[in-house]
Design goal:
The protein has about 230 residues and is α/β, with parallel strands linked by helices. The chain has one domain (about 5-15, about 20-225): 3-Layer(aba) Sandwich (Collagenase (Catalytic Domain)). It is built from 8 helices and 5 strands, in the order βαβαααβββαααα. The protein has helices spanning about 40-45, 65-85, 85-95, 110-120, 165, 170-185, 200-220, 220-225, and strands spanning about 5, 55-60, 135-140, 150, 160. A hairpin with a 5-residue loop joins β4 and β5. The longest helix is centred in the last third of the chain and has 21 residues, at about 200-220. The chain starts with a strand and ends with a helix. The structure holds zinc ion. Zinc ion binds near residues 184, 190 and 200.
């Protein structure tokens, strides 16, 4: 079976840190009980003006519990907020590869605009009848000896996530991982784990950076004042 591996390389830019709590909300390691309060969600919604709405839906979450479950739900929330923003649209459409060309690698002959439309349309190759939904079927597995963060294949909607990495990931890293794997469900691939300008990697990086910024906007005193 041909598998597409999503290697650690993606997040190698992030410094390693230790956590007293798996559910880490910001870089000050402040833990919270729930992903977002109702007030924070409504403020965050107001911050983004959407350009066609794509819901992020957890269809099945096998092996997740406790703080891990909270973390994955928080990743869904933040991922949904950022991908529905005009900023995300702009970042995808304006994306330039390392050669300075406004196109993704392994783009299947599609323009940045077309890739954005396909992403927001939400029709997975194996689930074409759910437009407007990013349907995520996730399964946690534990392989301490592996350097694979997660993997999936073209034959299934299931995305396998390695607990070894997930347990230490922050929300923006989980959101990035899910975005990367989900673009595989849309039929996009990469030639290697070093093809950082491919659709899965590049969109994963965009979501990672946007979620990180959104988390800090919510958690910083300045951000809270601004959001209020
Ligand atoms: Zn991949």
């Amino acid at each position: 079976m041909k598998r597409c591996f999503f290697l650690l390389v993606v997040f190698s830019l992030f410094p390693k840190k230790s956590y007293s709590n798996q559910f880490v909300f910001n870089h000050q390691s402040k833990s919270i009980q729930s992903p977002l309060t109702e007030t924070e969600l409504s403020h965050l919604n107001a911050e983004f003006s959407g350009s066609g709405y794509l819901r992020v839906k957890g269809m099945s979450l096998e092996g997740f519990s406790g703080p891990g479950l909270l973390k994955v739900y928080a990743a869904f929330s933040f991922m949904e907020k950022v991908i529905n923003s005009n900023d995300f649209k702009k970042r995808v459409i304006d994306f330039k590869n390392k050669k300075g060309e406004r196109r993704f690698e392994s783009n299947k002959g599609l323009s940045n605009e077309e890739i954005y439309e396909i992403f927001m349309e939400g029709r997975e190759v194996l689930q074409m009848d759910t437009p407007g939904e990013a349907n995520l079927y996730l399964k946690l597995y534990d392989n301490p000896a592996s350097r694979v963060i997660g993997y999936t294949s073209s034959k299934t909607n299931l995305i396998n996530i390695n607990w070894k990495y997930f347990k230490n990931f922050e929300i923006h890293e989980v959101s990035a991982n899910l975005t990367h794997e989900w673009t595989h469900k849309l039929g996009f691939g990469h030639t290697s784990a070093r093809e950082h300008d491919s659709v899965p990697y590049a969109l994963g990086y965009i979501v990672r950076d946007m979620v990180y910024r959104a988390m800090n906007q919510l958690s910083s005193p300045k951000g809270r004042t601004h959001l209020n």
